[in-house]
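Table S7 (text form). Paired inputs.
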Amino acid sequence: MRRLNLKSFESGYKILIIWMPEYLRKEGNKLLKLIEEPPANTLFILVAENEEQILPTILSRCQLVKIPSPETSEIEQALITRANIEPAKARQTASIAEGNYREALQLLQHSEEDWQSLLRDWLNAALKGGPAAQLKWIDEAGKLGREKQKQFLRYFNHLLEQSIRIRIMGPANVTLPENEKDFAQRLNKIASVSQQQVIIEELDKASYFIERNANGKMLFHALTIKLCHIIQDKTLILAE
């Protein structure tokens, strides 16, 4: 409200962009009158990710414009033309990014990382290696750094999702690099769809905690224990 009292610098219009209005909560009520009857030549742009979480009193005063996420093929083409990435790597990165172009660009910063080998070592340590091998892997994962840890979890999530697609649609109908397709098919042999879905949920929660500066070593230690329990079918849902 204070900023809207300032004069515009160049144009006759003043434009106020509010990011994530779904987090305004009760404080958003202070803006109701202003949004309903804005000053002359004033535009409000509220940029949200979840329409349902916006206060109904605010939402009812807005003109809703839904902007879909870019298609995987669009991100792939953008990486090829704008970032000069070879088609195979662009296709893989776009698939992992899941409609987030900014995330795709961040993935490229660590595109030389061998996530598949790291994942293979983790599964072998968790399911076959015993405590010593698990602790060794956890120590290595804890040193990766937050961004690399997030990207590794995203890569694992991507392979699990592709595994489910292969199970439902068949290998011939899923476009993946041959080594990734083979790995995804192997994941289908060690976990059922319900187990894979639970693992995906755990990976999503782990990514959430990493973004909030959780201790990587402790997080991967807990995640390794959960992974063992889920795959060995001792329990599908662990106590929080």
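Next pair, protein 2 of 2.
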Amino acid sequence: MAKKKNDEALSPVIGTILMVMTSVMLGGIIGIYAFGMSENVRNIRMVSTSVVQSGSDILITYQGGQAQPDLSSMAIIAPNTTTFIAVDSRGALATTGTPVHPDVGSVMVLSGAGTSGQDHVVVLGYFNDGSSQVISDTYV
């Protein structure tokens, strides 16, 4: 008795799955644009800071970035949840005053804010168009 040869493989099944996946993805993309969901997507501004701890001080260095010309001011939320703002271009911090844009390379110091544990620091950027963005959210 001769063995029956089976020439079919998984390729028809895989091809069908790929076609269905492609159709679902295209439908989703078209749906996003058709229903205006893409309007809620914000541009992410590229601005950088570094946050380090030195003894009991926390040092935040503003490093600039692509969106640096659009940055109007910065705020820092210290580990004790106090909000500080940069009040001069060299990076001096205060809880009140007129916020300013720090110079690239400015070091902002949270004096005595660091502990021996993990300290949570958040740096916020405020931009000329009225928008804001978290620049850094880290533990030191």
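The radius of gyration is 26 Å.
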